[in-house]
User: Which sequence fits this backbone?
């Protein structure tokens, strides 16, 4: 029986849920010709070696820190993926690599279901690959947002502020009540870490969507919940984006 191979590239991969998720899916659905493996590579250039060593690969997921770095390796990009500027799913067909972003679909579906008809302004913590998908969702849903980063790094983006700016002007937590954490801070095993926001100004008006899913209750979720905020982790988004990846691989 010829095996269809799928997998995940990233570094490190200690936090990954993907192998367990897809292995369970294959067992549940009787897909005995499918397998999912982890490819922990310290440099994105090693993607070529992964492909060469595993000719049965038909699909890959991409996680931190390679969602942006992997783009030059693609033969083509899905139009939505071009707009986002980050890849988290690769379809491999006859040696050609096609890049997609299922974070977008997973986050959008999950956020809409959670918020209902309301559209609170958002503070987006982080500016990496996951942040780019989140921002595209907010743009498409017409939800105003501000990005929060540790440094501006020469950026003149008027929608970008630093955590220092946020501490100097904590009233932004009222003006932008929805907080979306796109950073990996708080992910197992470093569960005590959290983004440096002014927690004293968090209240019942705030909502937190943390893209981290391991642990289920992160440090930032716990601290904001104690202040009365409504909180949600990224597990539902993860399931939705995984199923979207599966659909892409099997088109």
Assistant:
């Amino acid at each position: 029986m010829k095996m269809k191979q799928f997998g995940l590239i990233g570094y490190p991969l200690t936090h990954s849920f993907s192998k367990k998720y897809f292995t369970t899916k294959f067992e549940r659905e009787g897909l005995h010709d499918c397998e999912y493996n982890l490819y922990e590579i310290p440099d994105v250039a090693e993607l070529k070696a992964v492909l060469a060593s595993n000719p049965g690969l038909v699909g890959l997921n991409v996680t931190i820190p390679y969602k942006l770095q992997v783009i030059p390796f693609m033969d083509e990009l899905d139009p939505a993926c071009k707009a986002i500027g980050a890849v988290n799913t690769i379809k491999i067909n006859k040696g050609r690599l096609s890049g997609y972003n299922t974070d977008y679909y997973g986050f959008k579906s999950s956020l809409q279901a959670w918020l209902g008809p309301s559209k609170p302004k958002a503070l987006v913590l982080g500016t990496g690959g996951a942040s780019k998908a989140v921002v595209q969702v907010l743009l498409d849903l017409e939800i105003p947002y501000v990005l929060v980063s540790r440094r501006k790094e020469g950026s003149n983006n008027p929608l970008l502020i630093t955590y220092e700016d946020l501490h100097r002007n904590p009233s932004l937590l009222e003006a932008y009540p929805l907080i979306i954490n796109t950073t990996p801070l708080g992910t197992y095993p470093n569960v005590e870490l959290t983004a440096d926001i002014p927690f004293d100004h968090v209240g019942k008006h705030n909502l937190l969507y943390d893209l981290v899913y391991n642990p289920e209750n992160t440090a930032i979720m716990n601290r904001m919940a104690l202040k009365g905020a409504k909180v949600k982790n990224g597990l539902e988004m993860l399931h939705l984006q995984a199923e979207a990846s599966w659909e892409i691989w099997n088109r």
Q: What stands out?
A: Residues 17 and 27 are 16 Å apart (CA to CA). The chain has a mean pLDDT of 94.
